[in-house]
Amino acid sequence: MAVVKPLKFAWLEVTGRCQEMCGHCYADSGPKGTNGTMTVGDWAGVLDELAEMGTRDVQFIGGEPTLHPELPELIRHAHGRGLDVEVFSNMVHIRAELWRVFTECGVRVATSYYSDEGEEHDEVTRLRGSHAKTRANVRRAIALGVPVRGGVVAMSSSQRVSQAARDLVALGVPQVGHDRARAFGRASAGATPTIADLCGHCAHEKCAVGPDGDVWPCVLGRFLRVGNVREQPLSELWGGPRMDEIIADIRAVHGGGAESCTPPQFLPMCGPCGPCVPSVGHCDPREADIASSGI
């Protein structure tokens, strides 16, 4: 089946493992997570398909993607196919080989940050010392010339989100996005996920591939399974009948979805809207522009 819509960006969720155990994790990742059933060859095949489909950007995500033992090989393969690469990491620990690959392949890094105070940040991640380690590795990335983006997710009204953003900027991070916790994964507290909880921009020039090969319209919309790359080529799944059904279902709830933005900490091609603060509760550039202009 011919590709009927451009696929410009793909999340590649290579693992469900993570050192942290954040209460708002949409993927339910943690220390007991696994790398799934996708082999290095499977992932390389997906990268080849994406390159042939004209995709520009991929983001390795998890879980914590730096825990995948073959991430350096996958980054080099993506880079060799002309794909721009970003790694979304908690930046708790990045081994020496990965720093080399980041610099050699022009990799960008994105990270989540919850407070300028270590105790509050660690309370979110449920990993003692995570704030200090993340902060130190943000400094190291900047010193090495590795571009870094930051995202601050608001968990409560008392959280030091503004201070966290200012702290990242002071460290040298030029772009800091904001979002609120969304009702997926552990943040759902057992509730069934719904399309209404999505931003409405899912499957618009983007998709996600999970550790077992499942394809979703985005990382948050994992309950909307398109198919599996181990059973059918991604080029057939993208723009196929199941994808069309999912897009129709999303539009039935959100409308066209063209004005809705995925939170900027998830998408490297999107800059943060202004004013982009957790209290907004939505991400519509038109309304953000109106608010910033004082209308």
What does this structure look like?
With 295 residues, the protein is an alpha/beta fold. It contains nine helices and nine strands. It has helices spanning 40-52, 71-80, 96-104, 118-125, 130-144, 161-171, 234-237, 241-254, 285-293; strands at 9-13, 57-61, 84-88, 108-112, 148-154, 175-180, 206-209, 214-216, 227-228. Strands 6-5-4-3-2-1-7-8-9 form a nine-stranded mixed sheet, covered by helices on one side. Strand 7 and strand 8 (214-216) form a beta hairpin. Helix 2 runs parallel beside helix 3. It is globular. Mean pLDDT is 86; it is low at 262-266 and 271-295.
Largest sheet, described in full?
9 strands, mixed
How would you state the average pLDDT, rounded?
Answer: 86
Helix content: 25-40%
Total number of beta strands: 9
As a percent range, the share of strand residues is 5-15%
